[in-house]
Amino acid sequence: MLKKILIILLGLSLFIVACNKKEENTQAKSLKEELVIARDGESKTLDPHQGNDGYSLQANRLIYSRLVEADGDMKIYPGLAKSWEQIDERTTQFKLREGVKFHNGDPLTAEDVKFSFERMINSPRIAFVVPPIERIDIVDENTINIVTKNPFGPLLAHLAHPALGIVSKKIVTEAGENYANNPVGTGSYKFKEWTHGEKLVFEKNEDFYDKNEKGPKTIIFRPVVEESSRLIGLETGEYDVALAFYALNEKAIKNNEKLELLSKPSLSTVFLGMNNEKEPFNNPKVRKAIAYAINKQSVIDTVLSGSGIIPNAPVVSTVFGSTDKTKNYDYNVEKAKELLTEAGYPNGFETAIVLRGGEINTQTAEIIQSNLRDIGINLKIEVLESSAFLDITANGRHEMYLGAWGVVTGDADYGLYSLYHSSAKGATGNRDFYSNPEVDKLLEAAREENIPEKRKELYEKAEILIMNDVPNVLLFSRNITIGTQKNVKGINVHPVTLHNFATAYFE
């Protein structure tokens, strides 16, 4: 009898263990179907044509598709357009994929594409990203022609910008101003819910046309402002992926055997901007003096713990159209004093710098403040809320500012035209209010040139002039880093942080 009882108890215990194992496996499988990503900010809108901030672009990249796409290496590949060809110097014909559906089941039509581009052109938020389109011609239900106002070499690079997502004419028209509350695209993920300040949730689009994207069933973005909190969440396993790490926290991730640090050089540059239309910054000798006075390597070593480079051209070397014929200004206090004296300011002057908050920004400004004090320039630091900063610098009510620009398209046109063409003064990007007619001509010619090598030559000439004029001081370009759990694979780090998490999977 005792033997029988022991056998029964043993059987029960094995059954319980098996059940527990099954439950654990089920939970593990469930966890691996949900990718939780901690970000340092929150999307402003899920309407692709109303938001150009990085947090919105990360989300809208999932919801929407574009005619063409760009991967983390900035290589162009087919999107909603399966193929394209240049008909003449102003016309490019795109063949649309057949059978593509919006998330609500409606078919994608050429009319939706035409409507989307017309909507983009009329958007004050992203119009500057859109190519100079004269019109969209519908050839047939699966074919459109994009006709530009003039030849436009960087057409495909611009079309791959995440803000140029295709929307449904019917849904947008019916929803009106409420569209962003329930966005519908053709992208790899469907919008599910958004609890502001807590989470933004997406569900995988099982009907997505690109079956190569492995992506988990659910992606969740969580806004976690404090970098230390993102690190702790990553270490405890609360987050599968966490963005925006710097310095010591990068080392902590590297030294944790359960985590992995992904890194790639950025296409963004941080710079000290100067209002070229205001005295004394309208004097190029003053601008050069400031360029010599700043110890850029000290900024990188102190603020970024060495994780960055000093840019030698207005766009970094990995951007198409960058040049190796220019060099940044060395740290030379005596040369700076000499130029300041020649400019008529032997005793320096007083000025102010505006910047957005954040540890990196404030530390960078403090080093600049200390460096400029060495040549007699007394710099007042003013930290502003983001919208106030953008308003003041867009309207030229500043003297100096701390700026940054990411070449989202990977093409020099986006990094040079927006920042240095005189027509782009203000909100478009040229907050230095810089103007050089010869630079304008070169940038315009490069836009209209379709031969890549000739475009490079034109950009090089423009960059040489820009570096000599010193409209701003190029400070650093840092690495883009992502912290992940070891079992997260497939993320190709995007050099301007617009990562495509639809390619992620658990191993």
Question: Can you offer a commentary on this structure?
Answer:
- The structure is a single chain.
- 34% of the residues lie in helices and 23% in strands.
- It is α+β, with helices and mostly antiparallel strands and 507 residues long.
- Strands 1, 8, 9, 10, 11, 12, 13, 14, 15, 16, 17 and 18 form a twelve-stranded mixed beta sheet that branches.
- α8 runs antiparallel to α10, α9 (296-303) packs antiparallel against α11 (359-373) and α13 packs antiparallel against α14 (437-448).
- The chain is globular and about 70 Å long.
Kindly estimate the percentage of residues that lie in beta strands according to DSSP: 15-25%
- Largest sheet properties: 12 strands, mixed
Overall form = globular
**Residue share in helix:** 25-40%
What gyration radius follows from the Cα positions, in whole Å?
Answer: 26 Å
- The residue ranges in which pLDDT falls below 50 over 5 or more consecutive positions are 21-31
Strand tally, please? Answer: 20
Our count of helices gives 15
Structural class: alpha+beta
How confident overall, as mean pLDDT?
92
Distance from first to last alpha carbon: 49 Å
Brief overview, please?
The chain has 15 helices and 20 strands. With 507 residues, it is of the alpha+beta class. The longest helix has 30 residues, at 2-31.
Write out key terms for the chains shown.
507 residues, alpha+beta, 12-stranded mixed sheet, 4-stranded antiparallel sheet, 15 helices
How is the topology of this model organized?
Blueprint: H1 2-31, E1 34-39, H2 54-63, E2 68-70, E3 76-78, E4 81-88, E5 91-96, H3 110-121, E6 133-140, E7 143-148, H4 155-159, H5 169-175, E8 189-195, E9 199-204, E10 218-223, H6 227-236, E11 241-243, H7 247-254, E12 259-265, E13 268-274, H8 284-293, H9 296-303, E14 308-309, H10 333-342, E15 350-356, H11 359-373, E16 378-384, H12 386-394, E17 400-406, H13 412-420, H14 437-448, H15 452-469, E18 472-485, E19 488-489, E20 505-506
Parallel strand pairs: 1-10, 1-11, 15-16, 15-17
Antiparallel strand pairs: 2-3, 4-5, 5-7, 6-7, 8-9, 9-10, 11-18, 12-18, 13-17, 13-18, 14-18, 19-20
Helix pairs in contact: 8-10, 9-11, 13-14, 14-15
